[in-house]
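re the bet — no i am not wrong, look at it urself. input seq straight from the record:
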Amino acid sequence: MAKPGGTTKRKGEEAPRANRARAVADMLPAVGGAAFRRFGFVQSSIVSRWSEIVGARYAGVSAPESIRFPPGKRSGGVLNLVVEGAHAPMIQHVAPVIVERVNRFFGYPAVERVQFRQGIVRVARTRALRAPPSLRPIPAELGDSLRSIGDPELRACLESLARGVAEAPDGPVPSVAIPVVGTIGERKR
C-alpha cells in the first residue's frame, strides 16, 4: 500500500543512503561484482590476483577471460585464457599446473580444463614508487656548488640535472679536468 504523498518501497531496492562520505574502495566490490559475474567470474579476485595464482612468468603472457561452469554447478568448470600468440604452446604444456593452482586458490576443484584464445594480454606493470625529483637529495659533491646560484629557476634545473647524474646506472660520473685553452673573446697575437 502506498503512503500518501510518498513513494512505495519496491522489492530489491537498494539500501537507504548513509549520508556520509565513503571511500571509493568501499563501493567498488559491489559495482565490479555484477560485471565479473556477467562475464563468468564468480570471484573477481582471480583476475586481480592472477600473477599470484600462476606466477609472474605465466601471468605476463596470459590472462583469465572467463570461467564457465556446467548448469547448476560450481565445479568442473572451463577456464578460458587469453594467451600471447607465441606463448600458447608453452601455456598449453603447463595447463595441468594452471588447473592445479587455480583449484588450490579456490579451495575446491572449480576448474577441470583450460581453453585458450590467442590475443593481446594487457598486463598491469607495477612500477617502483620513487620520490618526486624535488624531494630526492642531491649528492654533496654535486650540490655544494649549486647553492651559490642566485636564479631559482636555473638552480632548480641544475639540481635536477645533478640528481639525474647521481642516479645514472654506473653512479655519478667522475669529474674530469678540462684544460682551459683560452677565453671567449680573447684574440690570439
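see?? Helices lie at 24-38, 45-48, 50-54, 56-59, 88-93, 95-106, 140-143, 152-166. told u. also Residues 24-38 form the longest helix (15 residues). so pay up
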